[in-house]
Amino acid sequence: MTDELWEVYDSTKLSDYDRCPRLYFYRHILGWVRGYTNWNLAFGIAWHEAIEYMTLNGYQHHEEAFQIFYDKLREAYPDPSRDPEKGKTAQNAHDALEQYAKLYESDNYEVLHTEASSSVKIDDSHKIYARLDTILKDSRGVFSFDRKTTGRFAPWWYDQWSMSLQVGTYTAFLMSKYPENPVSLIIDGTAFIGRKVDPIEFRRVNTPRPNLAQWKADVVQRIDEIREQTDETLLQHQNSIMTTFRRNPSGCFKYNTKCTFWDICLSQNNPWGDRNYIPTGFKKKQWNPAK
Ligand code: SF4
Hints:
The protein has a domain at 110-217: Lambda Exonuclease, Chain A (Alpha-Beta Complex), CATH 3.90.320. The chain is 38% helix and 21% strand. It contains 9 helices and 7 strands, in the order H-H-E-H-H-H-E-E-E-H-H-E-E-H-H-E. The longest helix has 22 residues, at 212-233. The radius of gyration is 20 Å and the shape is globular.
């Protein structure tokens, strides 16, 4: 059994591998996901659609953008009475779109693309896919706003981009598509903070130019490891213990949230052997970075 998507990589998949190889195995080899979309993810998807609308049509259209946000959020969470009371709430999203329009009203760029997707070739046997929220152009050259939401702007939030695989991938994408232009990647962040007063903050971070030779080495090393681990796993369907895609207990509580696969991880010794028994509450849905 193989899946053609096993060979389609992006920075999200490689970051999952960094967090925990076993998590990567569940999420990207078996393709298991929770049967529902969690609130943060649903909120982030809706936020992206709203900001994209404002990018294409002008920031003054923030009320229409909010309607897009709201409709998208309600697809995943139809009952407003179950919404959280602080932080990433629909009301805060409404206010944030209005404030964003005002704060950044002097933005003056040409939109070249939104949701731009392509692969970046590293060498003859390695490539990585990227999907950029935006590709824009102004007097600075070609740049991309990468829209992020967070619960707060902690010190690490600013520092994390320096070694980020995503920043390297997106910068390499821009350089390959626009070799004649200076290119840059800007994190366009909005924090929805769990407090009643001033719950919304904005930050834009110019990401440092990555060391692309190092980025290439980082990507190639991870892809080679995953390929090797995958090949070995295919031989382990009858083992009592799966010895590939090691578990990383340090990754179990990222952002103070328990890993989705916690219960499965505690109960399964050879998840490859048990791969046909999808646990209750999960479904199979492979992430396709190329789409
Ligand atoms: S529960 Fe921990 S060890 Fe298991 S997959 Fe998740 S992060 Fe990895």
